[in-house]
Amino acid sequence: MTQTTKNLENRYVNDLRRLDFIRGQALQLRSIIVPLGLSLLFLATVALFVGGTDFSDNTLIIICAAVIGGYMALNIGANDVANNMGPAVGGKVVTITAAILIAAVCESAGALLAGGDVVKTISKGIIMPGGEVSVVEFRNLMLSALLAAALWINLATILSAPVSTTHSIVGGVLGAGIAAAGVGLVNWPTMGKIAASWVISPVFGAMISASLLLFIKTKILNVDDRITAAKKWVPILIALMAAAFAAYMSMKGLKKVWKPTPLVIAFVSTASFLVAWALSNPFIARRTENLKNRKKDIYCLFDLPLIIGVALLSFAHGANDVANAVGPLAAIVSTFDQSNEIASKVTIPLWVMVIGAVGIALGLALFGPKLIAVVGQKITRLNSPRAYCVALSAAITVLIATTLGLPVSSTHIAVGAVFGVGFLREFTENPNRRKVRPGHKLNATAEDAFKSRLVRSTRRLVRRRFVLSIVAAWLITVPVSAAVAAMIYYFLRLL
């Protein structure tokens, strides 16, 4: 082969590498531009729709509020919804595309069917406006809080940190409220409860998910006859999930359209347990007929309950957290009625609910896969039983906390449950640990090397980088949102 031929081949290879690089850059650029373009199109549509509605002289501020509310809804879909669907994707039960479709339908249905007609204008009662806040200041306060929360959630999504949207809007209202009328406006006991939820939510979620997974390992996965054990215990676990979610939907998912008594909730939950157990027994018996006595074969028995569970979690999330996006918007709209006063509760117009529902679904579809991958795959490795434990622990934790009157965050619960599953695996599995024969002693050098290998193998099961970054994001959510909201409020007051 001549030197000229070699030079031509090298040039050809280099040209191919350049083309591959250019193609990769183009695809990456398209993956950024297309979602941003569709988001801007959605916000422009919101602005045009509101602009075409007759709000007399107040159209401009309502357009601004509606666009910011739509922006907030996009960010809620991108960040918060991933906590429900992430475990199912990480457990390889559904694909990311299927998860997005399920969550988009359930979130929208929850927002529009069970979102309720009335929402508190002051998120979580964090401030108590009186005569010291005028109507104009109140509007600026709500705008500042909404925009600050949306900006923080957007940044958190870029940094791959799942954060609480409720805490974000609470921080925004807190900061803008202090900027408007000082610290005396703040309901500090409520703030104390919210601060307590930073610890309560993830700890409860982790403990319950780890306990459920330990039960599944002990009673089903680590016994000799897994098929027989599965026939006995899986129907009970499915019935437990049915009972928990029946109570969860009664107490939280449908609370804005249905307020049952504790006795009715207990009856619905018990009936759901019995019906689910009766139906799942023959279902599991059929599913186990052709299964082998292997762990991987047992995993598939948790797939259907998991899908139903995450769908219900998404429905409940849409029914409750849509208010984080449209509550301040509805509050601003309410101040333009005939009374021109600040109401404690307001009716949410249908068009406002539609903005919230569509924005959440669109934000999930365009930006959700990133956080879904973090929650479902990057913190720790999940399979179907582990993802099932995460989903069920979310419902059980909310039930326990609601009964005890403790504040919790669904985001913190879900991520804490993933941590709990991962740390339990570290404690019980340690896959690369070497066994030392009884009576055998290691010298100092060998013992140090053994401990080093053990630590490394243990840490692979939960990525500490995500633990530290997520916890840090949780701790600064309220302060950052509050600081940004205060700055925005001061800016609006200067206009």
Q: In words, what does this structure look like?
A:
The protein is mostly helical. The chain has helices spanning 3-51, 59-79, 82-90, 96-114, 135-158, 165-181, 188-221, 226-253, 262-287, 295-299, 303-334, 350-378, 384-404, 410-428, 444-459, 464-494, and strands spanning 118-120, 345-347. The longest helix is centred in the first third of the chain and has 49 residues, at 3-51. It is built from 16 helices and 2 strands. Helix 6 (165-181) packs parallel to helix 16. Strands 1-2 form a two-stranded antiparallel sheet.
Write a brief caption for the model.
This protein is mainly alpha-helical and 495 residues long. The chain has helices spanning 3-51, 59-79, 82-90, 96-114, 135-158, 165-181, 188-221, 226-253, 262-287, 295-299, 303-334, 350-378, 384-404, 410-428, 444-459, 464-494, and strands spanning 118-120, 345-347.
Features:
1% strand; 2 strands; single chain; 16 helices; two-stranded antiparallel ribbon; mainly alpha
Topology diagram in text:
Elements: H1 3-51, H2 59-79, H3 82-90, H4 96-114, E1 118-120, H5 135-158, H6 165-181, H7 188-221, H8 226-253, H9 262-287, H10 295-299, H11 303-334, E2 345-347, H12 350-378, H13 384-404, H14 410-428, H15 444-459, H16 464-494
Antiparallel strand pairs: 1-2
Helix pairs in contact: 1-2, 1-12, 2-5, 2-11, 2-12, 3-4, 3-12, 3-13, 4-11, 4-12, 5-6, 5-11, 5-16, 6-16, 7-8, 7-13, 7-14, 8-9, 8-11, 8-13, 11-12, 11-13, 13-14
